[in-house]
Amino acid sequence: MNVVAKTETGRALGDAFAVARDRLPGKGKIAEQRREAFEAYERLGLPHRRIEDWKYTDLRALMREVLPLAPAPDAAALGRAAAAVKLRAIDGVRRLVLVDGAFAPDLSDLGKLDKGLSIRPLREVLDAGDSALSAQVIATDVSNPMIALNGAMATDGVVIEIADGTVLTEPLHIVHVASGTAPASMFTRSLLRLGRDTGATLVESYLAGEDAKAYQTHDGLIVAIGDNARLDHVRLVEDSVDAFNISSATVSLGAHAHFNTFGLTSGGHVSRYQLTVTCSGEGSKVETNGVNLINGKQHADTTLFMDHAVPHCASREIFRAVVDDRAHSVFQGRIIVRPDAQKTDAKMMTRALLLSDDAEADNKPELEIFADDVTCGHGATTGALDESLLFYMRARGLPEKEAQALLIQAFVGEAIESIASDPLREVAIATAQRWLQARA
Amino acid sequence: MSLLEVKDLQVRVEEREILHGLSLTVNPGEVHAIMGPNGSGKSTLSHVIAGKPGYEVTGGQILFKGEDLLEMAPNERAAKGVFLAFQYPVEIPGVTTWNFLHAALNAQRKARGEDEISSPAFLKKVREVAKSLNIPQDMLKRGVNVGFSGGEKKRNEILQMALFEPAVCILDEMDSGLDIDALRIAADGVNALRSPERAMVVITHYQRLLNYIVPDVVHVMSKGRVVKSGGKELALELEESGYAQFEDAA
Ligand SMILES: Nc1ncnc2c1ncn2[C@@H]1O[C@H](COP(=O)(O)OP(=O)(O)O)[C@@H](O)[C@H]1O
Ligand SMILES: [Mg+2]
User: Fold this and answer.
1) Residue A152: what are its φ and ψ, rounded to 5°?
2) Which ligand minimizes its atom distance to the CA of B19?
3) How confident is the model over B207-228, as pLDDT tens digits?
4) What is the pLDDT of residues A379-416, one digit of tens each?
5) What's the confidence (pLDDT) of residue A16?
6) What is the pLDDT of residue B92?
7) Greatest pairwise CA separation for chain A in angstroms
8) Of A176, A197, A236, B39, which residue has the fewest beta carbons closer than 10 angstroms?
9) What span, in angstroms and rounded, lies between the C-alpha atoms of A131 and A121?
10) What is the DSSP string of B122-191?
11) Range of the domain at A134
12) B49 CA to chain A: closest CA distance, Å?
């Protein structure tokens, strides 16, 4: 049975890769890397529950197949995308829009770049044949089948480079939009390189045009944070109700670098976000915060791999899941402290709030510590709303849903508070409130 | 018409009957005291009036201005003007007192078909009330009751009572955990809210509180029933002779 499923899945996509190949930017060595990545994917196929990392998110059961590549967006598609982008526009940011897996210059803002800031579409970079940069973008971890597939198929993305000493005044906002009138896949990959002594804020949003059909977003982000640099990162997943979002981010930090990331998933049918953070320079600091607000039959998985490779680094993870109806939230957080990484300070706290009897939350924190002089800890709780609090609030006149909404806001508050930028924190709060209002 | 009428109320908790046919009639302007030993069912009565889940009413009625209170959700009862000052107010971390009070007041107003109150108007109102109760402003910025002392929690209950302007106030052991100064402030707050339209039911098992909030009627409760009612002198009588004499009557 499984063999058959794998063969069918493999063949359909193998054909798709052959067909798509001409549309994939990059020749020579890049094309070679793509082929290798695709072969790596094909050997494993769609991950299933018997692969430990994918135990709770069985893509063979949930996704079944990878849809064919979306066509390049035409004027109508760009129009639909523009409307979606406008609806979720954030003030005071530099917007970079990817529609159906293609960079959309007309919807993006590439004018008047700060000195030291370079932004190019990935397609352009790959076509120009900058081999060092291309290798960084495409040749990544192929042991993870979905990251391998993303590398093989990526049609576009943005390549952002921030030169040493440059501190950006304006956040960058990468918007992924599915305009789709037909079911299709999008593959994007982006690179963000912060030089030493730099500072930047990156927002990523995943959106869909009105009436977008079931689609799959496959996205990959590669981030290198130089010595003494700081990146603030906010990620908002508001895909449409039958969408799949399979994304990864791979982040490395130099010495005394600081990475503050916050993710909110309220949209999509099935989502999986694989975040790998490596402290490779001493004295670096990582704050990873996440919130899932899901209902219906949504499935949202955040899988974090925090790698302490060197001494004197600190990491904090706060994750909150609010799960209603028959939805399923997954948080897997693995912290590894390598033998050399003495004086590591790593803490992870994950809490899930179940709003219905059929809601499900799986929390899997894992600590692997190979150094002896460290402070590490993790905790996980799962529970329902406190009935005595609800009654108190209702006795003061609040209808049940409103009382619940206040308690849910308080529950996710600690994670949202971690966002450093006031306006972006407000954006996250507004996104959470939209979810709460929709269930009221 | 009487404001609150409890008729032959029978209540069970987890298969055990706690109230065995309790009756009580409260008219506008009256202050009633309910006294009784621990475990006699005073809090149970207050919870059932407020609509707390987990209680099974197996007989009797509760009418509020002639309407069947037991048919209403707790929030509807609050909007109609029923207020319970809790014996043990809960702490709600992450929900600031400001936000909570504003949301609750607006929910009540909305349920009554009134306009919502704007933030500035609300702030002004709540600041005035807080001041009269000696509640510092920064307490209002904290999570509801989080880190409040026993006295502060009780004052916060009275603050809410003043803010919502209910028709019937039920105060469950308002005096527990209060020293004499705190008690006086709280009692002054309650007395300021006495009016010809409003009624109060003051639950306590000490006579002390009734020196500060002087009742019109005193009921003695024992083992889930009202066993005696009388004027304010009944409280003094109890103080001297204790509850033992009523235990048998029940
Ligand atoms: N949730 C409950 N479960 C079981 N028994 C309860 C519960 N609440 C109250 N009781 C019982 O009901 C009786 C009355 O309690 P209560 O109403 O709190 O009395 P009072 O407020 O007069 O001290 C007590 O015997 C108490 O143990
Ligand atoms: Mg009691």
Assistant:
1) -65, -40
2) 1
3) 889 999 999 999 999 999 999 9
4) 999 999 999 999 999 999 999 999 999 999 999 998 99
5) 67
6) 96
7) 70
8) B39
9) 15
10) HHHHHHHHHHHTT--HHHHHSEETTT--HHHHHHHHHHHHHHH--SEEEEESTTTT--HHHHHHHHHHHH
11) 8-385
12) 10
Indicate whether A181 belongs to any domain.
Answer: yes
Residue A281 falls within a domain, yes or no?
Answer: yes
Confidence of residue A7 (pLDDT cuts 50, 70, 90): very low
Check: CATH 3.40.50.150 for B4-249? no
A2: pLDDT strictly greater than 50: no
Report CB contact under 8 Å: A399, B84.
no
Encoded tokens for B40: 């006699």
Q: Is the pLDDT of residue A260 over 50?
A: yes
- What ipTM was assigned to the predicted interfaces of this complex? 0.96
Give how many domains chain A has, as a whole number. Answer: 1
Joined tokens for residue B130: 């807080």
DSSP result, A3-48: HHHHHHHHHHHHHHHHHHGGGS---THHHHHHHHHHHHHHHH-S--
Residue A40 CA to residue A51 CA, distance in Å, equals: 15
pLDDT at A212: 85
List of chain B residues with pLDDT < 70:
247-250
In a domain, A3, yes or no: no
Please state at what angle helix A29-44 crosses helix A145-153, rounded to 10 degrees.
150
Q: In what order do the strands lie in the sheet with B67-68?
A: B16-26, B4-13, B56-64, B67-68
In this structure, the residues whose C-beta lies within 6 A of any atom of ligand 1 are B 13-14, 18, 36, 38-44
Q: What is the pLDDT, as a whole number, of residue B152?
A: 87
Measure the CA–CA gap between B146 and A83, rounded to whole angstroms. 44
The verdict on a CB contact (< 8 Å) between B79 and A410 is no
